[in-house]
């Protein structure tokens, strides 16, 4: 089978573009940070408050505190103090 030189050049150019595109896609995927996961280490619950401690998969810790107030005014005053 005889191929025209222009057709061979086009086929080679398309193969190069496809290879470069694959490298770009896989390279970008490899550079994305991994997703963090969290494990609960402690959970304390009181009548009007709670406290949770978590450890992330990268070793950092997260503390979550929740306080409940009987009115919006009391909550705003406590937040202003904080």
How would you characterize the overall build of this protein?
It is a single chain. By secondary structure, the protein is α+β, with helices and mostly antiparallel strands. Helix content is 45%, strand content 28%. It is built from two helices and three strands. The chain has helices at 5-31, 72-81, and strands at residues 38-45, 49-56, 61-67. It is elongated and about 75 Å long. The protein starts with a helix and ends with a helix. The mean pLDDT is 76.
SSE sequence, one letter per element: HEEEH
Order of neighbouring strands in the sheet with most strands: 1-2-3
Q: What oligomeric state best describes the polypeptide chains here?
A: single chain
Mean pLDDT over the full residue set:
76
Q: Can you tell me the overall shape? A: elongated
Largest sheet: 3 strands, antiparallel
The class by helix and strand makeup works out as alpha+beta
Q: Please tally the β strands and state the result.
A: 3
